[in-house]
Amino acid sequence: MKIIKILSVIVPLGLSLGACSQAQNQTSSDSSSTNVFTDSKYTVTMDSSEWNKLTSEEERVIVYKGTEMIWKGEYTDNHEKGTYLCKRCNAPLFESESKFDSGSGWPAFDDFIGESVTEIPDKDGYRVEIVCTNCQGHLGHVFKGERFTSKNTRHCVNSISMQFVKE
Questions:
Q1: Are 90 and 24 within one domain?
Q2: 141 by DSSP, 3-state: which?
Q3: Residue 137's closest CA among 16, 54, 40, 81?
Q4: pTM score over 0.85
Q5: Are residues 55 and 114 in the same domain?
Q6: Are residues 103 and 24 in the same domain?
Q7: Alpha-carbon separation of residue 114 from 92, 104, 140 (angstroms)
Q8: 20 catalytic, yes or no?
Q9: Cβ–Cβ contacts within 10 Å for residue 76, how many?
């Protein structure tokens, strides 16, 4: 009787997990053929075989969800006007107008461009990861309710995940 009870829990769980992984695979294959950006100002690389070549440190952060050293990022103190693009696929992510100094040691933005950033709950249950919608490259984390800006949102981004295009 115990075996039947265990199987009645395990089998549906396995089926639901399989469905999640199938949906995940479908999403990532669909993202290579769908352009979610309407701005033709930048050439967004949709095909993963044509994404920008990453250094080993960029790959550690963008692909393997690492974090760059605090206060070491190239754009932490950047105050120039322009647009921040995804380092991997060139998708426009943030405008300089949305950047603010949070004192965290990483660039902070209170808004992103269109649907360019996707939020994913971290496995730790406390934080929310942000990734590029186009290539799923790791950008950093989003924090809400800190009251740094009127939008009450801080997208804490690794400089190494972006490239800056001056206006």
A1: no
A2: strand
A3: 54
A4: no
A5: yes
A6: no
A7: 9, 25, 18
A8: no
A9: 18
How confident is the model over 61-115, as pLDDT tens digits? 999 999 999 999 999 999 999 999 999 999 999 999 999 999 999 999 999 999 9
- Do 24 and 92 reside in the same domain of the chain? no
Counted domains in the chain: 2
pLDDT digits (tens, 9 = 90+) for 41-68: 888 988 999 999 999 999 999 999 999 9
Which of these is catalytic: 86, 132, 135, 156?
Answer: 156
The residue range of the domain holding 115 is: 36-166
What strand order describes the sheet that includes 162-166? 92-95, 82-86, 162-166
DSSP string across 142-161: EEES--SSTT-EEEEE-GGG
Q: Looking at the structure, do residues 87 and 155 belong to the same domain, yes or no?
A: yes
